[in-house]
Amino acid sequence: MLPIRYIEPVYRPPSEAESLILPVTDGCSWNRCTFCEMYTAPQKKFRAREESEIVNSLRLTGERCGGQIRRVFLADGDALALPTRRLLAILAAIHEHLPAVRRISSYCLPRNLRKKAQGEIDELAAAGLSLAYVGAESGDDDVLGKVNKGETFASTREALDKLGAAGIARSVMILNGLGGPLYSRQHAENSARLANATQPEYLATLVVSFPQGEQRFRAAFPEWAPLGQRELFVEMEHFLAALELKRTVFRSDHASNWLILKGTLGADKERLLAQVRQAIAAPEQAPLRPAWARGL
């Protein structure tokens, strides 16, 4: 058992399955997005962890298995809310106690980079922060307002541009179906516009879902309705068709997705569009995930 204090539930991106999860904050400093259930538990109230606790956990982990750890993910949902000085101290401690680490990553709320100058982001990159997961959710301001994201197209673009300028890889996530039928087309097209403007290294989509119920979400967005299977495919077609990416790894393979899509954009754009159009025209012939396997 690692000498790290975890507060359940603990979340991390799928690609961090082999990483050391290192909590540097608990919960999320915003935590008002009506679609998100990740940090709503009472024990997940936002707080920054003491630097001494983090460094001591790293020291003890390093003594036990420091040479085996190659990747570290800074948890919880909001590590970059910390002041740059504290983040630099944590990054330095990771390299001191876990010398085999080659990748350090974190979730990133765009709002947390507004007060950080480009020079600070550059310092974080130089100190070893190499990948940031940005839940953009949408590039459409109407949809972002409806779900109380606390961001806009402009604020998300600014954050992605800062990360890109520093050489920090960006993994951007869009929520398929977030705007419901009323905003579906503009959600798809403006989300593509955001990706086109920033050219992220990674781009992913998953279908919005509410395992704990829709009451909280619908209270602020009463006109929302879930998209049916075909409507989700049509929205995906609009999204893909509007993308003009040069070299972005694209994944739509989360358990919530009916249709698994993988490729590099723009090289595989036409193939991916053909797969989606087949699912629209003849879903019975498409390799769809069965409903029971969608993990909702």
Summed over residues and divided by their number, the pLDDT gives a mean of: 95
Number of helices: 9
Overall 3D shape: globular
Distance between the termini: 30 Å
Considering DSSP H and I runs of 4 or more, what fraction of the residues is helical? 25-40%
Biggest β-sheet: strands ordered side by side in the sheet: 1-4-5-6-7-8-9-10
Poorly predicted tracts of residues: none
- Overall SS class: alpha/beta
Instruction: Please give the largest β-sheet.
Output: 8 strands, mixed
Which percent band covers the strand fraction?
15-25%
Radius of gyration: 19 Å
Order of helices and strands: EEEHEHEHEHHEHEHHEEH
Question: How many individual β-strands?
Answer: 10
Could you name the key traits of this structure?
296 residues, 9 helices, alpha/beta, 10 strands, eight-stranded mixed sheet, two-stranded antiparallel ribbon
